[in-house]
Specification:
Blueprint (H helix, E strand, L loop, with lengths): L5 E7 L3 H12 L6 E5 L14 H4 L12 H6 L2 E5 L3 E5 L4 E4 L4 E9 L3 E3 L12 E2 L4 H11 L4 E5 L3 H12 L3 E6 L11 H13 L3 E4 L3 E6 L4 E6 L4 E3 L2 E4 L3 E3 L2 H5 L4 E2 L1 E3 L11 E3 L4 E4 L7 E2 L4 H15 L11 E6 L2 E7 L6 E7 L4 E8 L2 E8 L2 H13 L5 H5 L5 H10 L14
Parallel strand pairs: 1-2, 1-6, 2-3, 6-19, 8-15, 9-10, 9-15, 10-11, 18-20
Antiparallel strand pairs: 4-5, 5-6, 7-16, 12-13, 13-14, 17-18, 20-21, 22-23, 23-26, 24-25, 25-26
Helix pairs in contact: 1-8
Length: 429
């Protein structure tokens, strides 16, 4: 073991969650020693542009840095880069790196995110098979895209669809294979799935839905095709796999932390280990907008909100997690903004006309607004946030009328005297 330094706060992970935790601590006046520890050698950078602006070449790497190097130096935030944490000693308050380096901590913030889920089939190790999670991942992909004419994207979630949009814009022939019977099946209602499928098809993307990958084929070195369970072969020169992530939690598990789908945290993002917090993609937390269910959220917004909360707790505050989830995705000229969590919805309301490429889908559960998907409808997104926060119960007719703003609908309803206290009462159709 190599002796290391002691820090008052050690943050493992240099993505959005980790970087924002360090920034928030200094903004709140934390004057103790502080370090960001990560296995990448890059300065902390934004991840969402990797499958969009960075892959397309519209932004170079300098433009997706969270902060320039001088920022971290000026705020005495040490960057320990290129170190993989392999163990945590919760008794000795130390983290152990693969190279044997030891770093002691007073408080530890685990913000390690996750690793891309990989295919578990024959041929998955062939060259030409890519994931999109880090700069190195995308740099390798960019280095091979120019010579590829036909590319298969496996996975119809946001990363897969965003990559398909960029690659189509680069003139590539794109085939998308999704195991479910529609894209975005785990995130959205069917009308939104079919809308995006139609938009991609109109630009030449070929879809294979309900398509389970059996194997990847090639010459023993490089991929040349994707074989589906039904026997169909999708020839290609490149494969991009976008089927989710595996939370990076093994050192916490080995140290005895409570684990579920991620490391379990309370509403202050504390793990079951003393003085250890967890935030971001790897943290399974009780979410008030999921009726208290324990969930993981993979979003910049969630990472930032949890980072700010932990910084407040460490600096003496008594904050508890109560942030409205929101997400976004850019594909072609379509801007999708989502607020709330649609899980468990029992009714949807279409607001606007999808053929006009500006509309919202409002999700209800027991007549209560729980989420909105807004396509090129920023006003609905902004105003719908208040509905989700209030758990507003409004009639489907009111919600569906795009001529009536959601803000006005809510305000008029509150002014009517039907709402007592903070909750919005039911309006019958």
């Amino acid at each position: 073991m190599t002796p290391g330094r002691f820090y008052d706060v050690v943050i493992v992970g240099t993505g959005h969650a980790g970087a924002q935790a360090a920034i928030a601590l200094r903004q709140r006046g934390f004057s103790g020693t502080l370090c960001l520890l990560g296995n990448e050698t890059e300065l902390p950078y934004e991840r969402p542009p990797l499958s969009k602006d960075y892959l397309s070449g519209e932004k170079d790497f300098a433009r997706i840095l969270i902060r320039p190097r001088e920022f971290w130096v000026e705020r005495a935030i040490d960057l320990l880069q290129g170190h993989m944490v392999v163990a945590i000693d919760p008794v000795g308050h130390r983290v152990v790196m693969a190279d044997g380096l030891l770093v002691g901590y007073g408080r530890l913030i685990w913000a390690a995110g996750g690793a891309p889920r990989t295919l578990q089939c024959r041929g998955a190790e062939l060259r030409g098979v890519h994931v999109i999670r880090t700069r190195d991942d995308v740099d390798r992909l960019i280095g091979e895209v120019a010579d590829a004419g036909r590319i298969v994207v496996i996975g119809g979630g946001f990363v897969g669809l965003e990559a398909a949009a960029v690659l189509t814009g680069l003139g590539k022939s794109v085939v998308l294979a999704e195991a479910e019977d529609r894209v975005l099946a785990r995130a959205s209602a069917e009308p939104l799935s079919r809308f995006y499928e139609t938009e991609h098809r109109a630009r030449g993307v070929e879809f294979h839905l309900g398509a389970v990958v059996r194997s990847l084929t090639g010459d023993g070195e490089r991929v040349s095709g994707v074989a589906l369970d039904g026997g169909q072969m999708l020839p290609c020169e490149l494969v991009i796999v976008g089927i989710g992530i595996v939370p990076a939690i093994e050192p916490l598990r080995a140290a005895g932390a409570a684990i579920g789908d991620g490391v379990l945290v309370d509403d202050q993002c504390r793990t079951s280990l003393p003085d250890v917090f967890a935030i971001g993609d790897c943290a399974a937390h009780p979410n008030p907008f999921a009726d208290g269910a324990v969930i993981r959220l993979e979003s910049v917004q969630n990472a930032t909100d949890q980072a700010s909360l932990v910084a407040e707790v460490i600096t003496g505050g008594d904050a508890h997690f109560h942030a409205v989830p929101w997400f976004w995705s850019h594909q072609y000229d379509l801007k999708l903004q989502t607020v709330g969590l649609s899980r468990g919805y029992d009714q949807i309301v279409m607001r606007g006309d999808p053929t006009r490429r500006s509309f919202s889908i409002i999700y209800l559960r027991q007549k209560r607004v729980i989420a909105l998907d807004c396509v090129n409808a920023t006003r609905d997104f902004v105003q719908g946030r208040a509905l989700v926060m209030a758990g507003g119960q409004l009639s489907a007719d009111q919600l569906a009328d795009p001529a009536q703003s959601l803000q006005t609908t809510m305000r008029d309803h509150l002014a009517s005297g039907r709402a007592a206290g903070a909750d919005v009462q039911v309006l019958t159709d």
